[in-house]
Design goal:
Structural class: mainly alpha
Distance between the termini: 10 Å
Length: 76
């Protein structure tokens, strides 16, 4: 998730110290939120498909993996 914050910082870095316009600020926040939701969806889908051996390797039980995989994408 740090890469999403870095994207936001990079976007504002192009302004050479100037502030974003209100519309640009809202647009950037929307894009970052959508990127977070997509990240959540993608990682939860992958977690759902890990076998028990892989789950043991990362220290996650099947029950915990199933609960996390069924969470809505908008929940962090």
């Amino acid at each position: 998730m740090a890469h999403l914050h870095q994207t936001q910082v990079q976007a504002t870095g192009f302004l050479d110290g100037r502030s974003l316009t209100p519309i640009a600020s809202v647009a950037l926040k929307v894009v970052v939120a959508i990127a977070k939701w997509e990240f959540n969806h993608r990682t939860r889908t992958r977690l759902k498909h890990l076998d028990d051996h892989m789950l043991r390797d990362i220290g996650v039980t099947r029950d915990l993996a199933d609960r996390e995989a069924t969470r809505p994408f908008w929940q962090g």
